[in-house]
Amino acid sequence: MKIIVCIKQVPSTNQVKLDPETKTIIRDGRQSVINPFDTYAIEEAVRLKEKLGGKVTALSMGIPATQRILREAMSQGVDEALLLSDRAFAGADTLATAYTLALGARHIGDFDLIVCGRMATDGDTAQIGPELAEDLGVPHVTNVSEILEASDTELLCRKVTDYGTQVVRMKLPGVITVAKDINMPRMASIRGVRESLEAPFTMLGAADTGADPARIGLKGSPTQVVRTFTPEKTVECQFLQGNEKQAAGALCRLLKEEHLTGEEA
Ligand SMILES: Cc1cc2nc3c(=O)[nH]c(=O)nc-3n(C[C@H](O)[C@H](O)[C@H](O)COP(=O)(O)OP(=O)(O)OC[C@H]3O[C@@H](n4cnc5c(N)ncnc54)[C@H](O)[C@@H]3O)c2cc1C
């Protein structure tokens, strides 16, 4: 089975800085890690390879420093990696990101399955997996918590929904995004770390992928951030003193007062 696993580099800190001009996240590679959800995608891709044979290629769009997390994935069983890196890709919204990753997938060539994390911890949209599938014209299943059956031609997956779970059969090639309860990611072995340093790694720019300049980066993004701001704190938190009964009584009085004030207004 030929598997592609999409990995995003995300800030490991919540002190994310924004460029005041472009309103985009400043991605300088410092304090960056593999998107936590993507560690489950890597593990599932490697498990499928171990079961069915084949190859796993890690794919990322990001700054050159993203190479570090791709090497980390290779130390955990991924065979090779492709990094799409170019100033022209910067500032992409999800549509432009998915288009760019689709170019990367096409460059890798015939694939049976693409595995993504459920969502990225910085962008948080969970849109890339489905958009990537649409771009490539293949089916997708999101939020997969278990792969019940797998062959080179189809997958039987359990997916988590808002109301419970669903069992879905999907013909391959296709895309899945995985939930974090799908597996327990393995630690890299010393041998894996050593082998990852020698593993095949390719970096391509926009021209190498034949990207349409009108569909990549900030210019190719139909959605752009107009303004960013920290929400003003408008409510004060009040702690009620005393035991449970006293606190409940105080809460009732406060709610009554609030209700009466509301009625007067
Ligand atoms: C309206 C809007 C406007 C935006 N504008 C900008 C902007 O102007 N500038 C800017 O810098 N950002 C912008 N972003 C953020 C940017 O679109 C996202 O960082 C990026 O498109 C990925 O989306 P996400 O982080 O929500 O990923 P999700 O969809 O939550 O990620 C799901 C999975 O997709 C895969 N994936 C996601 N991104 C990558 C990647 N780069 N490489 C490999 N795999 C990946 C991973 O497997 C991940 O687990 C914008 C987002 C939105 C919604």
What would your notes on this structure say?
α2 (67-74) links the parallel β4 (55-61) and β5 (80-84). The termini are far apart. The mean pLDDT is 92. The chain has 7 helices and 11 strands. The chain is globular. With 265 residues, it is α/β, with parallel strands linked by helices. It has a single domain (2-215), classed as HUPs (Rossmann fold). α2 (67-74) packs across α5 (190-198) and α3 (94-108) packs across α4 (128-136). It is 31% helix and 24% strand. It has helices at 36-52, 67-74, 94-108, 128-136, 190-198, 206-209, 244-264; strands at residues 2-6, 9-11, 32-34, 55-61, 80-84, 113-117, 140-150, 154-161, 164-171, 174-178, 201-204. The protein has a 9-stranded mixed sheet, sandwiched between helices. Strands 2-3 form a two-stranded antiparallel ribbon. The structure holds flavin-adenine dinucleotide. The site of flavin-adenine dinucleotide has 36 residues, from α1, β4, α3, β6 and α4.
State the distance separating the first and last CA atoms. 67 Å
> Domains counted in the coordinates: how many?
1
Helix content: 25-40%
Helix/strand/pairing category: alpha/beta
What is the C-level CATH assignment?
Alpha Beta
Unreliable runs, pLDDT <50, ≥5 residues? none
Number of E-state strands? 11
The number of helices is: 7
Mean of the pLDDT scores?
Answer: 92
For the largest beta sheet, what order do the strands appear in spatially? 9-8-7-10-6-1-4-5-11
Largest sheet: 9 strands, mixed
Give the oligomeric state of the chains in this entry, treating copies of one chain as homo and distinct chains as hetero. single chain
State which percent range the strand residues make up: 15-25%
CATH superfamily: HUPs
Order of helices and strands: EEEHEHEHEHEEEEHEHH
User: What ligands does this structure carry?
Assistant: flavin-adenine dinucleotide
Radius of gyration: 23 Å
The CATH architecture classification is 3-Layer(aba) Sandwich
Tell me, briefly, the overall form: globular
CATH topology: Rossmann fold
